[in-house]
Amino acid sequence: MNLAGFVPLSLCDYPGRVASVVFTQGCNFQCPWCHNGHLIPLEGDPVLRIPEDEVVARLAERRNRVSSLVVSGGEPTLQPALPRFLRRVKELKMDVKLDTNGSRPHVLRELLRERLLDYVAMDVKAPWHKYDVLTGNACCDVAAVQESMSLIARAGVPHSFRTTRVDPLLSEHEYGRIRLQIPPGSPHTWQPFRPATCRDAALRAGCIPVSPSA
After folding, report:
1. Distance CA 137, CA 118 (A)
2. Would you state the pLDDT for residue 44?
3. pLDDT digits (tens, 9 = 90+) for 38-66
4. SS3 label, residue 125
């Protein structure tokens, strides 16, 4: 696992749980509002890399106080070693929450099949017709994202979908279209946009106009 961050204790990343958080390096999206821009490159800064064995050892030391782990990123499903890593975590009798952009449904399917996930949170970035633009991925496979949403909604594990409200890039009409994309009965939350730490300099400066309705 290419791990680039570890938070020993979090009260806000796993609903209703005290959890540790690990951050994986590498993402296939380049959302301009991302506040973890340093995690987008697949290689990343070697100085930030944390050995997997060290993380597992620290989780083992704390498992009497912290019984859950959040795997975030970056995009964790890009990591070939993710299933093996989660098996190690489950051997510690820890619950696992996965944060994902939903771009790799075949990975999600296998993780759910092995019962390696206890909670899944998926980001819904934009209305479908704007996904390629707002994820910075001209080859974005919207059908794959839609498949992931369906998998998560039908998996029988606690889950949520979430969207960052980036008012300079999306209009109220487009927020309404996003809400209609959420599977019936699935929780959906709006996340606040944090311009001070986002990767796009223009957004940080507040000089991008509001997107017109489409």
Report:
1. 29
2. 79
3. 899 988 788 889 999 999 999 999 988 99
4. coil
Superfamily of segment(s) 3-205: Aldolase class I (3.20.20.70)
Cβ proximity of 66 and 8 under 8 Å: yes
Q: What burial letters (b/e) apply to 151-170, b meaning 16+ CB within 10 Å? A: bbbebeebbbbebbebebbb
- Which tokens in the block code for residue 65? 């106080």
Give the tokens for residue 129: 């017709």
DSSP state of 165: E
Cα–Cα separations (whole angstroms), residue 10 to 22, 30, 35, 125, 201: 11, 26, 18, 24, 29
Contacts of 7 (CB under 8 A, 6+ apart): 13, 20, 21, 22
Tokens at 50, concatenated: 């944390």
| Domain coordinates in residue numbering, the chain | 3-205
pTM over 0.90: yes
Residues facing 68 on adjacent strands: 19, 95
pLDDT for position 209? 52
As a residue count, the chain comes to: 214
